[in-house]
Specification:
With 67 residues, the chain is mostly helical. The chain has one helix and no strands. The longest helix is centred in the middle third of the chain and has 65 residues.
């Protein structure tokens, strides 16, 4: 029984740092996503919106020319 308990204690002692490292990695990953996603969204908006506006204006121009 003693050897089993010692093994369990060692596992518990090893388990705590692993869990803390995993949680720190998760927090870092979440922080990275939170910091990167808005930048990528802004970049997408900046690159897509002018194209959409241009297409929309051309489309509206064609409609008004026909009308």
């Amino acid at each position: 029984m003693a050897t089993g308990n010692v093994f369990k204690e060692r596992m518990a002692i090893a388990f705590v740092p692993v869990m803390s490292i995993v949680s720190i990695m998760l927090i870092a990953l979440i922080a990275l996503i939170v910091s990167v996603v808005p930048v990528t969204l802004i970049a997408l908006v900046v690159s897509v919106v002018p194209i959409v506006l241009f297409v929309f204006l051309v489309f509206m121009g064609k409609i008004f020319k026909v009308a």
